[in-house]
Write a structure and sequence with these properties.
Layout: E1 2-4, H1 21-29, E2 32-37, E3 40-45, H2 48-56, E4 60-61, H3 84-92, H4 98-121, E5 126-127, H5 128-145, H6 149-163, H7 168-190, H8 197-202, H9 213-244, H10 246-254, H11 259-269, E6 279-281, E7 285-287, E8 290-292, E9 297-300, H12 302-305, H13 340-357, E10 362-363, E11 381-383
């Protein structure tokens, strides 16, 4: 069975920590939904079991171009199936291991301290989103990739233009401009010496995985689109969750060893991503009494699956003492986010350093949420020091 789902376009009146009503109803119904995205019909899968199925079953392909995401560029490995996908993941594997993330934590702490120095110097009262939640991941990612501050800022602006485009014609035009910008950086780094990710991605010397200029650009673009903006938004959302739940913040203060589990719980609990990356069904599949036909577009709902009561006890409760294994915030299967360890480090450092530096920090007003795209705070006004 299926049901029509009307996607919310504005979060007005919606609890900032709740999944969308329509997706909750879909999860409770035990059926699949249908939804129009840019005028193209997609099937929506909401339960944890169904999301794991569609993201790990060869009957659902990332390589078959969808009508909404017809990207066909060398190196764009998020739009590939095995074995082609594996070749590109192998090229970047060493930069996204748990061991690499531990080294990157040193960079994150240094950048976080610099951000907080600037915030403290400006005096009580600030919006944490631009000066901390966005700045911290941006500067760390730039350093991991080997980009200067100016290079990173220009590339981020180009990427944001694509993400904020209003229609498919604009998306295609701005995507072409973004790739032209990205390939110019690949060429530049190919001629420079260095051991950051982009230097090695672009190098033309001997390597077990040798990429062309176009392939290196495609891989670089996937990493930026899949990780840059989403990590920035998640950092801000996690800080908001802890500021809005003082009892959970207090539990972390009493027992700082809870931080790693708390990061996992925030990743599970916060409904950042209302829609996953579409797959295309390559053969007819029967699911919950509904036939998903070959050629149909399918979207896994990661945030909704993370609230599945069949997978998590009391899923709508935020509890930093929980050990939420098998959450789907980073996806599932071969396309699980390669930057997941770095994302965890950034969230952990952002929270730890903020609350250590400003133990009495608190919200200073309403928190508007982004009306479109990823669901997260658009502003996060805070203050600290003695209450007025």
């Amino acid at each position: 069975m299926s049901t029509e789902v009307q996607q919310e376009t504005t979060p007005v009146g919606r609890c900032p920590f709740a999944i969308q009503d329509e997706q909750r109803a879909l999860l409770g119904s035990g059926v699949i939904g249908s939804y129009d995205l840019y005028g193209v019909k997609h099937w929506l899968l909401a339960s944890a079991e169904d999301v794991k199925l569609v993201t790990n079953d060869p009957r659902f392909s990332s390589a078959v171009p969808s009508e909404v995401l017809p990207i066909d560029r060398p190196g764009w490995f998020s739009g590939m199936d095995s074995p082609e996908h594996n070749r590109y993941r192998q090229k970047i594997a060493r930069d996204f291991t748990l061991r690499a993330a531990r080294k990157q934590e040193e960079i994150a702490i240094r950048v976080a301290n610099a951000c907080l120095d600037d915030i403290e110097a400006a005096g009580p009262g600030t919006d944490l989103i631009p000066g901390y939640a966005k700045r911290l991941p941006s500067e760390v990612i730039n350093e991991v990739y080997g980009l200067s501050k100016e290079e990173g800022a220009a590339l981020e602006a180009s990427m944001r233009a694509v993400v904020g485009a209003a229609d498919m014609a604009a998306i295609k035009t701005l995507t072409t401009e973004f790739f032209a910008h990205a390939v110019s950086l690949v060429r530049l780094k190919r001629d420079q010496s260095g051991d950051r990710l982009l230097h090695r991605l672009a190098e033309a010397g001997d390597d077990e995985v040798l990429l062309s200029e176009e392939e290196a650009t495609g891989v670089f673009a996937v990493l930026l689109f899949a990780g840059h903006d989403s990590v920035q938004q998640m950092v801000g959302y996690c800080l908001y969750a802890l500021l809005a739940h003082p009892e959970q913040q207090a539990a972390l203060r009493r027992n700082p060893d809870l931080i790693d589990g708390a990061v996992e719980e925030m990743l599970r609990y916060l409904p950042l991503n209302p829609l996953g990356i579409p797959r295309v069904c390559v053969e007819d599949v029967e699911l919950h009494g509904q036939t998903i036909k070959a050629g149909d577009n399918v979207i896994p709902l990661y945030s909704t699956a993370n609230r599945d009561p069949k997978a998590f006890d009391e899923p709508d409760t935020f509890d930093v003492t929980r050990r939420p294994e098998q959450h789907l915030a980073f996806g599932h299967g071969i396309h699980k986010c390669p930057g997941q360890h770095l994302a965890r480090v950034l969230i952990k450092v952002a929270a730890q350093r903020l609350f250590e530096r400003f133990p009495d920090i608190r919200l200073a007003g309403d928190v508007p949420m982004n009306p479109t795209g990823l669901f997260s705070p658009a502003e996060l006004q805070v203050t600290w020091g003695p209450a007025a």
